[in-house]
Automatic annotation (TrEMBL):
It comes from the Bacteria. InterPro entries: PAPS_reduct_dom, Rossmann-like_a/b/a_fold. Residues 34-187 form the Phosphoadenosine phosphosulphate reductase domain. This is Phosphoadenylylsulfate reductase. Pathway: Sulfur metabolism; hydrogen sulfide biosynthesis; sulfite from sulfate. One of its GO terms (molecular function) is phosphoadenylyl-sulfate reductase (thioredoxin) activity. GO terms for biological process: sulfate assimilation, phosphoadenylyl sulfate reduction by phosphoadenylyl-sulfate reductase (thioredoxin). Transmembrane segments: none annotated. The lineage of its organism: Bacteria, Pseudomonadati, Bacteroidota, Flavobacteriia, Flavobacteriales. One of its GO terms (cellular component) is cytoplasm. Belongs to the PAPS reductase family. CysH subfamily.
Length: 207
């Protein structure tokens, strides 16, 4: 889907306050190869539910770092079954056990941290995007998460020119909690991202 910067700005103004399902329906109608990405972190259930209500055929790319908590894996399996998600699993080329023996989980100031992030997150993600070649990418990015995300909007372009669609961009936690209660959806807060260290730090996928 080719949109100019001015068109994206106009659409963002129109979409503010519009229900997520309507934004998703618009993107599906105008796109050719949509995907949604997830890691089953807190509140991811919202975008997964909203997309699945519009179309259950859309590939749901799960880049599993291999370091999720048991609760997160159980949460993921529950949502995959309940929402009938079209899951496409991507994992690092090296097992977490092997990596733990070689480098462990490097701290942010460790020179190996960049390579660690590449192995467990960036490479599997790049492989997935190369396989599916999406023109529309549904995400659960929200304003207030990081400085970078504050500069985005409901619609934005990735560095590769893919249209990122974040229907819940203007939602805060309270509004998402209301959405989850409305549809009786489970949430999962016991999530661990080995690459971020800090909650408000970008992981690299959206930079």
């Amino acid at each position: 889907m080719a949109l100019s910067t001015s068109q994206i700005q106009q659409l963002n103004a129109q979409f503010k306050g519009i229900p997520p399902e309507e934004i998703i329906s618009w993107a599906v109608k105008h796109g050719n190869t949509p995907v949604v990405t997830t890691n089953f972190r807190p509140y991811e259930v919202a975008i997964l539910h909203a997309v699945s209500q519009v179309s259950q055929d859309i590939p749901v790319i799960w880049c599993d770092t291999g370091y999720n908590t048991p609760k997160t894996y159980k949460h993921a399996e529950e949502l995959i079954e309940r929402l009938q998600l079209n899951i496409k699993l991507y994992v690092p080329r090296q097992t977490s056990a092997h990596r733990d023996a070689i480098m462990g989980i490097p701290q942010i100031d460790d020179p190996r941290h960049e390579e660690f992030t590449k192995q467990v997150k960036l490479e599997p993600f790049a492989r997935a995007m190369a396989d599916f070649k999406p023109d529309v990418w549904f995400t659960n990015l929200r304003k207030g998460q990081t400085a970078l995300r504050d500069s985005l909007d409901i619609l934005s372009l990735s560095k590769d020119g893919v249209l990122k669609v974040s229907p819940f961009y203007h939602y805060n936690d309270t509004q998402l909690d209301t959405y989850l209660r409305k549809f009786d959806l489970p949430n999962e807060h016991n999530y661990f991202d080995p690459t971020k260290v800090l909650a408000n730090r970008e992981c690299g996928l959206h930079t």
